[in-house]
Amino acid sequence: MSLGQDLAPHLPFLRRYARALTGSQGHGDAFVRATLEAIVAAPGDFPRDVDPRLGLYRTFHAIWSSANIEEDPGAGSGADPESIAQARLARITPLSRQALLLTAMEGFTPEDAGYLIGAQPDEVERLVAEALAEIERQTRAEVLIIEDEPIIAMDIETIVRDLGHSVTGVAVTRDEAVAQAMARRPGLVLADIQLADDSSGIDAVRDILQEFQVPVIFITAFPERLLTGERPEPTFLITKPFQRSTVKAAIAQALFFDQATIPA
């Protein structure tokens, strides 16, 4: 099997990670493209002594780390604005949150996460604990849940409340979601893709975003359908069935970027 065939099944999930790490589809996909370009340019440098997924994420982190540099004040007009923006984003997402996303969202063990970010397993566990402590100090938000499966909706609501956030409501259709959002504007939306009346959570979110901006996390059993990189897609995505830790990490990261201010 070729290297491309080995890596193809893992690309949607690298896109998910990259978007969660950068806080945007555009920046995340740019880093993924740069990763693939580096692999194509020097396939012999790809780490073959580890699982292909691990090697892919390792190459991504090498690209990510290369952008995590201080902007040169003397760069002047010769600096690439996109490169500067990416470097600023790299500084915004600290190592502790990288460790949390790798373990909670991507399912890597502390050993594997350590390999990816250049840390020992016990250091990864310390970084994750640091990220969780930071989440506890995070500004509280009002959350709208769009989910038509009662048990899943209750589970999500419990997770949201356990994090200290409040729930503005639980909607099961597109129309309900839009009406609830207009009645009480949430600070975060968690949306299933397929809703009770065969309407779409994506359409509900699109309607809401036409009225006001709010961070959104989508929940789906088929993430690869939304992570092609070919059209506007979710920045934050949770895969069903999900772990509670995954939902917590996604909520924290979505609010982190919503509340963060990128230096001018």
UniProtKB/TrEMBL annotation:
Residue(s) carrying 4-aspartylphosphate: D192
Matches recorded under SUPFAM superfamilies: CheY-like
Domain Response regulatory, chain residue ranges per copy: 142-255
One GO biological process term: phosphorelay signal transduction system
Key words, A-Z: Phosphoprotein
CDD domains xrefs: REC_PhyR
InterPro entries: Bact_response_regulator (IPR050595), CheY-like_superfamily (IPR011006), PhyR_sigma2 (IPR053866), PhyR_sigma4 (IPR053867), Sig_resp-reg_PhyR (IPR014605), Sig_transdc_resp-reg_receiver (IPR001789)
NCBIfam families from the UniProt entry: PRK09191.1
Protein name, entry field: Response regulator
Lineage: Bacteria, Pseudomonadati, Pseudomonadota, Alphaproteobacteria, Sphingomonadales
